[in-house]
Write a structure and sequence with these properties.
Blueprint lengths: L11 E4 L2 E4 L6 E3 L2 E3 L5 H91 L1
Antiparallel strand pairs: 1-2, 3-4
C-alpha cells in the first residue's frame, strides 16, 4: 500500500546569498498555500504581536520609571530651594533675635548701673543723715 504524500512548507528563505524553500512538513493551509508551524502567516503575526506587546510594556515601564525619577528629581530640587529659603529666613530671624537680646542686655546693664548709682546715692544720703 502506498502512503499518501504529505505537503511541505512553501516559505521562501534566504541564507546569506542562497535562496531556498523551507521544505518542512506542512500542517497549516493559509492563503491557498501550505506552511509549517514556524512560517504560517497567522502564527508569525501572532508571535510578532506578542513580541511587540512585550516590548511596548517594557518601554512603558521604563518611561514611567524615568518620569517618576524626573518627578523625584524635580521634587528634590524644589525641596532644596525651599530649604535654602528657610535657612536664609532662619538666619535673618537669628540675627534679629541677637539684636533684640543685645538691646535687652544693654537695657538691663543700664538699669543695673542706674540701680547701683541710686543705691550709692542712697547710701551716701544715709551716711550724711547719720552724721548730721
Amino acid at each position: 500500500m502506498a502512503e499518501k504524500p504529505g505537503h511541505t512548507c512553501v516559505q521562501s528563505l534566504q541564507d546569506n546569498y542562497t535562496f531556498y524553500v523551507c521544505g518542512k512538513n506542512a500542517s497549516l493551509f493559509e492563503n491557498g498555500k501550505w506552511y509549517c508551524r514556524r512560517h504560517a502567516p497567522s502564527l508569525v503575526t501572532a508571535k510578532r504581536a506578542a513580541r511587540q506587546a512585550t516590548y511596548d510594556a517594557k518601554r512603558a515601564a521604563e518611561q514611567a520609571a524615568g518620569t517618576a525619577k524626573q518627578r523625584q528629581q524635580a521634587e528634590n530640587a524644589r525641596k532644596l530651594a525651599a530649604f535654602d529659603e528657610l535657612l536664609a529666613a532662619a538666619e535673618r530671624a537669628a540675627d534679629a533675635l541677637e539684636r533684640v537680646i543685645l538691646v535687652q542686655f544693654r537695657s538691663v546693664s543700664i538699669i543695673k548701673q542706674v540701680c547701683r548709682l541710686q543705691m550709692n546715692d542712697l547710701r551716701d544720703a544715709a551716711k550724711k543723715a547719720r552724721e548730721a
